[in-house]
Amino acid sequence: MMNDRTALVCLALSAVLWGAPPSSSADDQAWRQRVPSGQEAGSTSEDVNEEVRFGREVAARMIGRYGLYQNDQLTRYVNLVGLTLAGNANRPELTYRFAVLNTSDINAYAAPGGYIFVTRGALEKMQDESELAGVLAHEIVHVNERHVVRELGIRATDDSAASGLARMIGGGSETARVAFTQAVDKAVDILFKTGYKREDEVQSDTGAVAICAIAGYDPAGLVRYFERINASKGKNTEVLDKTHPIYDTRIALLKETIAKEGIVSGNYKTQKERFDETMKSAR
Question: What is the distance, to the nearest Å, from the Cα of residue 95 to the centroid of all Cα atoms in its chain?
Answer without folding.
Answer: 13
